[in-house]
Fold each of these.
Amino acid sequence: MTVRDHAIDRDALTLTFVAEFTAPVERVWQVWADPRQLERWWGPPEWPATFTRHELEPGGEMRYVMTGPDGETSAGWWRMTDVDAPHRLAFDDGFADADGNPVPDMPVTHAEARLEDAGEGTTRMTLVSTFPSLEALDELAQMGMVEGMSSAMAQIDALLAEG
């Protein structure tokens, strides 16, 4: 099982996922650093992502579109706030319109991913999303963020198995 745990902390306004992968930290980092690998797991299996912009550096931006089973789309953006390869990346995460521009009336979360050696050739990835308010946390949780991220992260094992 990839995702070992997830927790919603309503006091801290966070949603945390902890996953472990049978691969070294440097290899797991590549699923973030390579846009072709990132789009194979960012988003639930029935909503694959296409990254149209990928700047993995502080101040860099990411743009992506997820496409649903009936052809509907949902776009997003990231603004990288910190990158410390291969152990840490942090970014602001929001919804985008069809042109990739941030949607101002949707919540923006701050995400931080940490990768650490868990021993015996495994890597523990902890992904913490911090919400601007309890209302935003509840809104995104009701939109299926917990289930969506769990199913998205479950795709990483198959990607890592390819080498």
Amino acid sequence: MRKKTILLADDDPDVIFQVKHHLELWGYEVVAVESRVEAERYLESGCPDLAILDLMMEEEDSGFILSYRIKKCRPDVPVIISTAVAAERGISFDINSPGSRSWIKADHYLEKGFRMEQLRLLIQKYLD
């Protein structure tokens, strides 16, 4: 049975290390990249079963751009936006509001500081 692949894009090496470690323990293949550019390079020839994207990488909206591009080509790929923007900048998003749903092309928005079990349940919701 083929392992499901998760694209993990985050410019924080500590987040990459911690999340990648747990994803692999849970049995997923992980493609970990540290920038939107690297993620786009991967997407040219590969397609994940799910993507976890940091919102702020090279630009403040890198995660939104990546999510839009993934959904444009593969609308069935679940995308989770992970960010600390609320704590760092005081900005928050509600992707369930009609206004936000029109431009935020993600399935879930996750505030950093989340528990790994919370992430696991979310991934299972989309992949099982």
Amino acid sequence: MASLTLSKGSNLSLTKADPGLSKAMIGLGWDPRTTSGEAFDLDASALLIGKNGKVRSNDDFIFYNQLEAKDGSVVHQGDNRTGEGDGDDEQILINLNAVSADIDRVIIVVSIDQADARRQNFGQVRDAFCRVVNQDTDTEIVRYDLSEDAASETTMIFAEIYRSGAEWKFRAVGQGYAAGLHGIATDFGIALD
């Protein structure tokens, strides 16, 4: 099965593209621009969103300091602090069968750590992508290569995995947030200190 490549705003039924899919690996990659300034540290995270468009609690925010959802349905594979090398820089595993029925979608976010202090943004990041791989068969189902210039944005929603009736679908989002991870967290109901 050849992987499909989506453009921004497009979606794909994962259930139809790979009927055997139950455990999805979300691979995320990027290459920061070479600069003489401070090193880049990009961080992937996942937000489990209910039908009301918000998280149920801070437990639904999966990131480098909270690697696993309470029910084990979403697991972050750990922080990569440099983004060096080929392939996925960070990975998030989603057991679709284990995702609670009151979760409507899983939003995949990538943010630049200390972006404001380091004066960094997504305009300085190239070759960013998000892909979905069937963990059981190691087959890539879909890929989204982010190509837009996001020079003012420090955090970006790369994609989301969402329910549509009995199906799971993938949407290539590519929406940047100049307000950073704090802005996204606030919009989706995470309580920050």
Amino acid sequence: MSTLHPSQGTKHETGIVADPAIPVITITREFDAPPAAVFRAHVDPELFARWCGPRTIDMRIDHWDARTGGAWRYTAIREGEEIARFFGSFHEVREPDRIVQTFTYEGGGDGVSLETLRLEELPGGRTRLTGVSVVDTLELRDLIMASGMEVGVVEGYERLDELLGE
């Protein structure tokens, strides 16, 4: 399973690939900002809440401790109504190029994802982001892929482009 999603209003595409043999999802995306700025947008709770998720959703940060051994929790809100909650732990936060964390959809069953985010510096002050998510079964991986998660990823990264351009 592999999809390439063009972004509206930006020149970058978001790659979302599910390996057919193992329960892994890989996301790739480039940004016109240096790794330090992209990293900061992932660890600063006020910045993270501004770009994470689809345009129709606001994120409320309930808890945020972006350091190695820290934890996080946030709530997705649409038109004033809480629609989903997520939580996890920061396993490793290494500025400016690596974040390893767990991700759990609260109320979504027993599934947990281990996510590794790598930021690579590109010529011209740009960044390549690679995110690898590992879950424990192919069924959970396929459920995530079928959930519409690509809308949140693609629109979230479009919003991140806008934030980085300010």
